[in-house]
């Protein structure tokens, strides 16, 4: 049975055939690349950032984080804006819009002064773009007072957004930097400056592994390197947090949000929708695996909707936001003890080691049987044991106990762990 | 059509790991609390410890663990019956398949060599007491390493021209390359152990008389069990050790004929069959009098020879060798069921039906310790290493008592 669910969704007043967009980066830098991505199934693109300077790139440009030869945990890039001429980029976008009228194109710009921002944004209409993303957040600019330095300063965010908006009739999306303690002030400043929506996040300032021979980090450029943007799977939890905070902020209700950071699969994308995104953007996963990953993003999302009985993505947007609350609001009246399945257990003892060294010394190790035994006097129900267990369904939620003096009530609980 | 493995005699059977693939494999390890793999190693090599080191990015520390615990870590890595020892015990078997401990150990020993690590050392100052080992096979080599590291002068005697015993002469190099054996031995030489090769020692007492305070007898099983069958004297009847040794010394160029029958069901029989196949024999057939389940050979070795196209026929024992012009022509077999019979054309018959001990005098004299195949009747390399280590500990105890330290 082939499942067909409509994945179309409106974002910033623009109808999108699906929420899957390339983010503004090396993956969307010319006609050929983007036409291939559209053919593969992507709903739209945030075109690679265009600025007014043409700085030579370093070589190499990238660093990867994680075990060599395995999927990246994270990815570090130090790439600048598009190296094409402005005219070339405008022409690429025009041709794309002509050949793929049902797909959505956002131009991305980065300026240094209010005049720059205004001028750059005025080009978007010449390119037949559907909208504009303003890059207030690139963390590795070769110049001061640009990129993420702007994004961390709400005053600059507001004035540059205002300047941008003054140069165009198109919707303007302000792209946030994660290199702040709280994203809400910058997002509010962008909205005050006239932005239509917010995209978050740009890359995280990073230093990945240090080279133990050359004593610098990746990528090594003539014996040196720089702090630059980190992306990929490792940053998704950080971005979901920012999205959640903005989604739960009363002053940002109804603002169109685009989620960016560590999206590889339909389920990653769904996470973003559930915390309020109406659109998601992908780069790192495309750099690692290519445009084709969108096929499973589309199909997987349709299967999920079919299985759970959803007919539109609108039903999913923000659905998790009411359930992510302050720690002080969480129920603290009960403990769930782990239930060990002796048949499935392979006797590795990892639960015992971790419970002793990192938990509450609540697991006794039966050396003869090579199986864990729970000491219910010490168990606090933290489930660290389950987190280290290498066997599927070996440790399940077991007995529920109410704390002394606590009133039993109806609870919403997981029945098993992933 | 089946894809049959075709390799050269000196080509190694299994591909090795590189750092990346080795670390991938190490990451499959469950890092057990009381790791059963380590419990299962007779020689105490402690795979759980060295795999954990590799997993936590400490390649040199991993190599150090292997060499300190097992002086023949390189050779054991190649020929250990893992599927009956550490890998069978591996907790990961309960999920999918065990960690490839042998291959990881091989990789780490290669790293030890590449880094030129000196993981074992002998103290400059020697202790009172001289030790000798009879035989330069795995049991003696392990004993010599432990004794030398404890500060004793050790001399190893062997009748052969090269050290290593069965490691050097009795195993097909596809399974155990000579350079692996030589490297293990080099590290033992580097401890200051002296080797007296080409010198057959008939009696432990003779060495004691020559001034050694303690003697280890690890002389192995080098006597050939001759078969008593009609036609057993025909040209083309060979015995396993002679054949394997000749093949190793000639780099696989020994003459074997095109139709080869190997009689036996142990690792030595598998090695003879592999050697014959790798040396270019067209048809190699193993005949074993019992079932595969009863065969002492490691399953990996059985699969290895089968992958080369060698056939294994079970429950058939040779009854007679039929000659033509004084040469092997057919072998006649009788079935275990007492009814079946077979007559099979052959140029060569290799008997791999076990070896016997050649007598060494004075094995029960004071200060004389015995281990390895000569003591256990013929087991694995890792068992020999374990017994050599154990004997060395007893010898040190003996020497300390003798010197009045204890």
Automatic annotation (TrEMBL), chain A:
It is an enzyme of class 1 (oxidoreductase). Its EC number is 1.3.1.1. Keywords: Iron, Iron-sulfur, Metal-binding, Oxidoreductase. Heterotetramer of 2 PreA and 2 PreT subunits. It comes from Anaerovorax odorimutans. Involved in pyrimidine base degradation. Catalyzes physiologically the reduction of uracil to 5,6-dihydrouracil (DHU) by using NADH as a specific cosubstrate. It also catalyzes the reverse reaction and the reduction of thymine to 5,6-dihydrothymine (DHT). It catalyses: 5,6-dihydrothymine + NAD(+) = thymine + NADH + H(+); 5,6-dihydrouracil + NAD(+) = uracil + NADH + H(+). This is dihydrouracil dehydrogenase (NAD(+)). Residues 336-368, 370-400 form the 4Fe-4S ferredoxin-type domain. SUPFAM superfamilies: 4Fe-4S ferredoxins (SSF54862), FMN-linked oxidoreductases (SSF51395). Transmembrane segments: none annotated. The keyword S-adenosyl-L-methionine does not apply. Belongs to the dihydropyrimidine dehydrogenase family. GO terms for molecular function: dihydropyrimidine dehydrogenase (NAD+) activity. It comes from the Bacteria.
TrEMBL record, chain B:
InterPro entries: DPD_II, FAD/NAD-bd_sf, FAD/NAD-binding_dom, Helical_ferredxn. The keyword Oxidoreductase applies. Residues 9-114 form the Dihydroprymidine dehydrogenase domain. Keywords: Oxidoreductase. Its EC number is 1.3.1.1. It catalyses: 5,6-dihydrothymine + NAD(+) = thymine + NADH + H(+); 5,6-dihydrouracil + NAD(+) = uracil + NADH + H(+). Residues 132-370 form the FAD/NAD(P)-binding domain. It holds the Pfam family Pyr_redox_2. It is an enzyme of class 1 (oxidoreductase). Involved in pyrimidine base degradation. Catalyzes physiologically the reduction of uracil to 5,6-dihydrouracil (DHU) by using NADH as a specific cosubstrate. It also catalyzes the reverse reaction and the reduction of thymine to 5,6-dihydrothymine (DHT). Heterotetramer of 2 PreA and 2 PreT subunits. This is dihydrouracil dehydrogenase (NAD(+)).
